[in-house]
Amino acid sequence: MTYVVTENCIACKYTDCVEVCPVDCFYEGANMLVIHPDECIDCGVCEPECPADAIRPDTEPGMEQWVEFNRKYAVVWPNIVSKRDPLPDAEAMDGVPDKLRTHFVEAPGEGD
Ligand code: SF4
Ligand code: F3S
User: Fold this and answer.
1) What is the CB neighbour count within 10 angstroms for residue 24?
2) How far is the CA of 42 from the centre of ligand 1 (A)?
C-alpha cells in the first residue's frame, strides 16, 4: 500500500508533510505535492500532520485514481524535503470543492 496526496492539497500546499517523511518521497508541483507510491513505506506519520487533511491511505475507497495521479506526477516533479510557507490563499482554499478541475496546475514546483 501507499499513502497519497489528494485534492485538498491543491492551492494550499502547506508542506508540513515533507518535514516528517523518513524517506523523503514527496514531489512538488506548482500548487500541490504528491507522494511516490513506490518509495512510500506506509509509516503513516504524514497523515495527521497535514492541516488540510489531504493525505490518505490507499486502502480507503476511491483512492485508485489518486494513486495513479501521485505516481504520474512523482516521476516528473522535483523532490521536496524542506517545509516552505503555505501558498498565500491556503486558508481560503482549504475545503473548496472541485479544486482538481478548477485550480490544479500541472507545472512542476521548485523542489529542493
Ligand atoms: Fe512518507 Fe510515511 Fe507519509 Fe509515506 S506514509 S509519504 S513514508 S511520511
Ligand atoms: Fe499538501 Fe497537506 Fe502536505 S496541504 S503539501 S499534503 S501538508
Assistant:
1) 13
2) 6
What pTM did the predictor assign? 0.98
Architecture of domain 3-81: 2-Layer Sandwich (3.30)
Separation of alpha carbons 112 and 92, rounded Å: 26
Phi–psi pair at 93, nearest 5 degrees: -85, -10
Q: Is 17 in the pocket of ligand 2 (CB under 6 A)?
A: yes
* Mean pLDDT taken over the chain: 98
pLDDT for position 88: 98
Q: For ligand 1, is residue 41 a contact (CB within 6 Å)?
A: yes
Ligand 2 pocket mutation pick from 16, 24, 35, 84 by most atoms within 8 angstroms of CB: 16
Handedness of CA 52, 47, 59, 37 (dihedral sign): positive
Contacts of 22 (CB under 8 A, 6+ apart): 41, 43, 45
Q: pLDDT grade, residue 27 (50/70/90)?
A: very high
